[in-house]
Amino acid sequence: MSFRLAVLGAGAVGGSVLDLADTYGHEVVAFADSASAAIDPDGLDSQSVRARKEREGVVGDGDPTAVFDTDYDVLVEATPTTLGDAEPGFSHVERALLDDRHVVLANKGPVAERYGDLRALEAESEGRVQFEATVGGAIPVLSTISDLGAGHVTAARGVLNGTANFILSRMAAEGLDYEHVLAEAQDLGVAEADPTFDVDGIDAALKFVILANVLSDEATEYRLDDAGVEGIRNVPGTALDLAAEDGRTVRLIGEATADGVRVAPRLVPKGSTLAVTGTQNIVQLETQHAGQLNISGRGAGGPETATAVLSDVSRLE
């Protein structure tokens, strides 16, 4: 089944959805950045929209809110994640659900900060909400939990931030200090100019809060404030050296269990499945009947995350 998509957010993920939608059998009829919108009921041409954005700094002549007045089936919410009230992303989702449209989220805010509100809106709508892309990019974590049944998964733990993992991997492999590796990561585009979300553990914590919400099956609602979060800024190179002497290394490990959510640097054996290197991510699911399942892969990136978005769209059939 082919769906008409309205995409909010013209960054790496939204742009990749625009580029790849037709390869999944869908078409983008509306595409908006923070200041403008391109709309075509017959389907937008990705190259033309991207060329105009590069040339003029806008994607089209319309107002961003005009996307809600188009004849679309699924809203793809790919605007930047915000904390607290999760705005404006939450209001975008609310508008679409009130109009009985489906929603696919790449934006973590509404799922991590207002999960109960999100599910309440969905319950009153003809539309459904999907959000695989909010946890682990292309890694099918949430769909695996759905297939197993959330009630049969007792815990999730792992590495869910590529930037922090790259920094810790390089520190351990080369004996370099944090500031040196951070600068290298920024030069390579692995870390943002402002790396706070990544190196302070906030991004990973949001993902594990989402996992906790899914695993709780709405029995308990978690938000970022409920999580214990410690980042990697204060991990000294000497700690990694000492760990190596003992056959271990340090990774930023998150956990979603019955005891809540925690993200912090932890010692793991060098040969452990949790000792992924570079920008790789991994999630371990502890299950009641199937033992431990490990799912790993690229946890970020425009095309990678767009594949999760478009897979979610296809699941709406």
TrEMBL record:
Binding site for L-homoserine: 192
UniProt record similarity statement: Belongs to the homoserine dehydrogenase family.
Name the UniProt record assigns to this protein: homoserine dehydrogenase
Gene Ontology biological process terms in this record: threonine biosynthetic process
Positions of the Glutamate/phenylalanine/leucine/valine/L-tryptophan dehydrogenase C-terminal domain: 4-61
Binding of NADP(+), residues: 9-14
Domain of life: Archaea
UniProt-annotated binding residues for NADPH: 108
Signal peptide residue numbers: none
Keyword NADP annotated: yes
Species this chain originates from: Haloferax mucosum ATCC BAA-1512
Active-site feature positions: 207 (proton donor)
Location of the Homoserine dehydrogenase catalytic domain: 140-313
Pfam families in UniProt: ELFV_dehydrog, Homoserine_dh
GO molecular function, one term: homoserine dehydrogenase activity
Keywords: NADP, Oxidoreductase
Enzyme Commission number(s): 1.1.1.3
